[in-house]
Amino acid sequence: MLQPIFRTMNRFVRYDPGALRLVRGAHLMITVVTAGLLANQLGPFANGVPGFTLSVLAAAAGAHCLLFTPISTRRQEASNLFWLGLIMTGLAVVGMVSELIAGENTQVVLQAMWIGFIAIGFGLEGFGPFWLRTGRMVSIYWLFVIMSSGSGSPGFWLPAMTVFGAVLAFVIRIGFWRPSPEKTYRRVERANRQAMADYLKLAANGQLSIDRRRRLNLSDIASLRSELETSIDLAEPGSAIRGLSLESAAMMQLALEVVRDATAALSPECRAELITNATYQQVVGQVQEKVVRSDSPSGETPFDVAWAELAVGFQKGDKFQLLRIAQAFERIWKLAEGTAQLRADDDTRLEVKSGNWWQLISWRLAVQAGVAASVGYGIGIYFNLSHAYWVTITVIVVLCGSLGATMKKTVQRTLGTAVGFVCAILLEPVLAGYPELRVALIVLLLPPVIVLFERNYGIAAGIISFLVLIGLQTLTGLPTAEFWSRLYDTLIGAAVGLAAAWLLFPNRSGDSVERLEVSYLNACSEYLKTDSGPNDPGYTRLKATAHQVLATARTYRTERAPWSSFTRSSSKLDTLVVLLADYIALYRQARANVLADSDKYASVKTLVATMDKRIHDEIGAVQDGKGKQAMPGLAEEWKAAMPATAEDDDRFMTDWVAMLYHARKVIRCLDGFREEVA
């Protein structure tokens, strides 16, 4: 009972390395509470505008600034908050002027303008990430302009409270304490190193034969590596922080898997002899210490592979597996050095794509958003729904740049809202007599929402739905019977948004996946032709392309098989794409080590060229949709190419075995890649 609870809490912590998102949520909570309390005090001086209206406007402005500013460096966040506050203030000025001009038709005019702002906001997506966030912010914040005009126009107080909320958000987020990105990185790096050291101990002693235990350990390492990626992204640009890079961590995991796989492949007799060998255990301890201690002395590995002679008298393949273990130890040792500079760039400009502005506008998405918002709001008005704007808000939330992403967001929003609705219904009798407890619960749940918003939107949507219902009941006396409207308004909005994405110029991902696959395989082929190390810019670009293929492929699978994509049971392409890049890098490095000794073993150079051609032919065959390519006699040539004298050269043999092993892994990844994309 306690173990699942512990794992759930542990997973929540890993959504937020170093409490970075939790602190951001705390800043949002402080901003909302402070803005609301201070703005309410201005009520007597606002010429008839209720203090509650001022509170809502100020709190909404501050909350929107923080919600649409992603966690980054202090300088980058300051720039984002400034520009978002400026844009929101301009929006409020437009709202104030529109109210003055519209007169008695204010509500109709503002509602019509809302549809226009939604279409414009979604059209901005093509300009880059900043403008994508800005477009969503504009689309949602205009609702508060509409709502504030219902009980008497706030006039000048509308932009005034917007400025007040934005400035307060800026001061609290930029001026208050926040976790140090460097200390966060160090903590996460230590956790990564310790997890990999623990896995190494288990793998080296053959204690990961149970598949479930291996998956749990690998899941922990993968989660920690995700934290490492976030921590590296948050390091100050141009800082001198050096340590374990994301690429090194990924390569170390592959080497750990080699140790596990090779140990499991040993004959039972050889494995038992190996595990009890004192020299081997000493080497394992040395490698473990190197992995854990990033400040340990650098240099060549202080151990040899004499224990590989244990294979004498055992099965023929045991020597091969022992050499694989030795080579993996050497790779782990070198990768554990952790001397990469984490962030060398310094670019705090707003993200804007190049090109003519009319070419960057996302016309297709703008049309989808405009039509869906019009239909959704029209349905709400026609059927006289009590909270018709919930329908339109749902459209804004679920509509994304592709059909697959819209489908996924629709399911997350719908299920999350349903869970939040059920929780609100069940807890309402308990909270009914304690309004102070309801307010405290609303305030305290804001930080967890921020933690989960980007990592697990389904859970975040459930908490948001619960907060909206309990908050409206506390502030406006919303009857419990109207809780149902939150649910069916969300269902209507989700259906309208999904229908628009499906029927109006649908942006399907099939063509994009095909283009990215071809580009990725070309990049793999080109990268294979070079000889630089795995941390060079070419490898970084290759990994970036791999992740782009993954993201698009997941979207495509969501379009074709929604259920399997949500259950994560649809494809092994995710693993194949990433591993292909890693194994090519590992093969290339082992190849360079082997070729360095080609003067001693003349036949090796020609054979390496043959293996390179074999891999390039296989890449071309996958691109052309052909079956597996065969190269008759290659296996025999490899066996015959090794001179007898080379068998005593332990270093050359480890590199030779590593090259063979990684070449085979590249071919297997390409075979699986062929099956998945067929």
Automatic annotation (TrEMBL):
Keywords: Cell membrane, Membrane, Transmembrane, Transmembrane helix. The keyword Transmembrane applies. The lineage of its organism: Bacteria, Pseudomonadati, Pseudomonadota, Alphaproteobacteria, Hyphomicrobiales. GO terms for cellular component: plasma membrane. The gene is yccS_2. Belongs to the YccS/YhfK family. This is Inner membrane protein YccS. It is found in: Cell membrane. It comes from the Bacteria.
